[in-house]
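Appendix B. Raw example, untouched.
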Amino acid sequence: MSRSLTATRRATLAGLGAIVASGSVTSVAAAAEKDWTVEATETDSTLHDVVSANAGRFAVGGGGVLTAPAEEGWLTLRDGGPTGNGNNLYGASVTDDGERVWFVGASGAIGEYIPATDTLVDRSAPMDNTNNYNDVAVTGAAGEANVYVAGDSGKIYYSFENGATGTWDYVTPGSGSALPAIDFHAPRSGHAIDTNGRVFATDDGVTWNAIGIEDANVTFYGLDSDAPDDVAVSGGNGTLLTYDGANWTPDALGDADLVDVETDGEAGYVVGSGGVVQEFTADDRIVLDTPTGENLNAVDVDGDAVVVGSSGTVLRR
């Protein structure tokens, strides 16, 4: 998770750029490109998600690529996905003990990767379903995980027995609109978003209830679920919405589509189209200059921040 800026650093950044009023949010243009490291990758496929496990970071993307950093850059561990058919991979998650990485993608692709043995287990097409899956959330320990998969069909497929054959079921939380993201903060408690401007909550992993958002009028892309009263959603036209358990608070962060969000309390990052990265605290919105114009799809914060996107882009700060 991201950390709040110190007062000294905030003052330094504020001195680098003018404070500009943007809707209800104060935006500070700051942070030079040199703050970022552009990391070499073996792949030029679009990277859609990045996560942290005990063995390090892992990113997934186009053509079923699974990649991880090494001394000489990010190396491709797999390039065909769990089935070997080269289906694009869109979402990833890690077990609570950090031992296994799960990922999902097109045509029902679901994989469970075990870094310790470099083993990839194919969990694809639960209940013979081959819809496109956009995101996955896993909770619990390796080998005993609860697995939740969200996709274009508007259904959430779930297994409370580590995705074993015959243990899957599904639920449709809304109207059947596609579900771009799902995230859990406890074994069976979390949130999901759909493309119809709705956010859903569960506390048993099975029953989902809508908790807004009224009159959102934007497409949702990113979700961070840290508690029942600590949720963030990012979307089109620079939209960021945060939930305190009772009310949704909107912010307007420029006009770029914000594809992913990661928060820690009132601090965090959002990333999006055209190389946009913004860092926010309780007091400021900070536009971070990046050395790329590529669309950025995901951010992971574990000490440092890593952002991934189109054309195999990996940035580290």
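End of appendix B.
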